[in-house]
């Protein structure tokens, strides 16, 4: 059974690696190409867009894909929307792997906002020292917040034109440990953390470190995507779904 995995998360990687060892499946792992130095799994891999819903639908048909796994980042709304619509158009089984969002814990000081513009506005007028972890493409709204000092942490170097005026750039890839996050906050005198609610364990330590230090967290909520009929929280549940799909598929699929 040929399976297309729209990757970009640890869950997608885990599904691909598990299928690599299962002779029943022939996985293809697809990356959007947004990260310059990705770490793909050891399966057939493609990079770049498909050309919208029509392009993805055509690719699914031409490659005889029997199942589509959407394991993209929770904020990759466009590709998730295209996946839902292409699956509906082609009749291919679709599963979304949506890891649970983080939730505030006792001692947290969270301010919830809808998007990056709201996060920039939430910083207010009083100068702050901000750890900004919103990705290299989400920085533009903070250009107008020049009164604050930013430590910008992301995987890839952003366009310099997007960086806030007073910004220190840290290029780093998670997972991050709690000791590392405590040291980062202390070294830069951080009093505010701005982040997306990505969920998962790889970058959750910053929230614990902020909680311990009494630091405010401006949390950007998840965008709304198209509803899908099948959604699971992790790679293990995705593998169980695929196993059931294979068992119930017509012979030769």
UniProtKB/TrEMBL annotation:
Signal peptide, first to last residue: none
InterPro entries named in the record: Precorrin-6x_reduct
Alphabetically ordered keywords of this record: Cobalamin biosynthesis, Oxidoreductase
Record EC number: 1.3.1.106
Enzyme class: oxidoreductase
Protein's GO biological process: cobalamin biosynthetic process
One GO MF term: precorrin-6A reductase activity
Pathway named in the protein's UniProt entry: Cofactor biosynthesis; adenosylcobalamin biosynthesis
Entry superkingdom: Bacteria
NCBIfam families xref list: precor6x_red, PRK08057.1-2
Protein name: Cobalt-precorrin-6A reductase
């Amino acid at each position: 059974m040929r399976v297309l995995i729209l990757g970009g998360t640890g869950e997608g990687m885990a599904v691909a690696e598990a299928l690599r060892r299962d002779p029943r499946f022939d996985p293809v792992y697809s990356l959007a190409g947004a990260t310059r130095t990705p770490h793909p799994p050891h399966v057939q891999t493609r990079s770049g867009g498909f050309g919208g819903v029509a392009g993805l639908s055509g690719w699914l048909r031409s490659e005889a894909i029997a199942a589509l796994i959407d394991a993209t980042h929770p904020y990759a709304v466009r590709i998730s929307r295209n996946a839902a619509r292409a699956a509906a158009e082609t009749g291919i089984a679709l599963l979304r792997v949506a890891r649970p969002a983080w939730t505030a814990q006792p001692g947290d000081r969270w301010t919830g906002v809808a998007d990056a513009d709201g996060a920039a506005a939430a910083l207010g007028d009083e100068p702050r020292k901000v750890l900004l972890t919103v990705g290299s493409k989400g920085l533009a709204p903070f250009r107008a917040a020049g009164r604050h000092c930013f430590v910008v942490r992301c995987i890839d170097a952003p366009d310099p034109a997007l960086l806030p005026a007073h910004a220190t750039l840290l290029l780093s890839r998670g997972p991050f440990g709690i000791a590392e996050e405590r040291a980062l906050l202390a070294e830069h005198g951080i009093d505010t953390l701005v982040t997306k609610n990505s969920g998962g364990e790889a970058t959750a330590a910053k929230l614990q470190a902020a909680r311990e230090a009494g630091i405010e967290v401006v949390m950007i909520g998840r965008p709304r995507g198209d509803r899908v009929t099948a959604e699971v929280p992790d790679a293990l549940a995705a593998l169980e779904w695929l196993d059931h799909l294979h068992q119930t598929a017509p012979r030769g699929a």
